[in-house]
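To fix ideas, we give here one paired sequence and structure record:
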Amino acid sequence: MFLVSGPELVIAACNAGVIGAFPTLNARPNQALRVWLEQISKSISPKAAPWAANLIVHHSNKIFSEDLALIIEFKPEIVITSLGSPEKAVPDIHSYGGLIFADVNSVEFARKASERGADGLVLVCEGAGGHTGFMPAKQFIAEVREFFGGPLAIGGAISTGEDIVNAIKAGGDFAYMGTRFIATNESLASINYKKMIVNCCANDILLTEYFTGVPAHFLKPSIIDSGIDLQVLNQPRKSIDFNYLGDHGSAWKDIWSAGKGVGQINSVKSTERVVHDLINQYKNYEGTNSLR
């Protein structure tokens, strides 16, 4: 989660029993990334879940090589590659026994990632926050399973234990959750961002490529609060740019993202509490449905 997930959230998630992940671009400058990686490595319990680093492989990431070098040094068990082919990271991650999950939002990209050495795929389905997908999970999974037998993590409007059960029943192996963990005590999101997550619903999510050059979901109230006329969002940008700074602020820092499962988030909690609630919801829903 860009500018949301940091060491505290990753550590809390892993120690609560779920895989915690963060984009390496969240730690700036590059020296800060080393500090973060050291903190995560030292603070996760030996019995905790694995942790993951998310690496932007698009050519616009000018510090890809530096971030990859630190990943190789600290050896997270999972590396998630985003916005491009995992190919250039595969040899190095595999050299220390790590696994690569490629973040994809189309069947075409899923096929390419599988052909280029991805061990698993993150299927970004419709309703996901940030750079979203457009296919319903069930159809996306079915088409990818025609050519890929590895593990699938399913993302897109997943906020409850019931959503997790349904993602697995549809053929996924894991649920991939972002928005639900924005409104946690440990996330880097501002208090106002967390409050907006709690107060918004799916109708408050707006899709636009205006800010980054890629279609992405943002919270409409945050755009309005930044003084931006919603009409200008119909003007597409010509290229991907993660460093865009407009007259009213920047995407993710001032203009906040969320997925369409936001309406099911009603309070700010600790990460441990969120995980506990998800486990109970999962068990209760799975048990109820097994009786049908």
Notes: The beta strands are 20-23, 51-56, 78-82, 99-104, 120-124, 130-131, 152-155, 174-176, 205-208, 216-219.
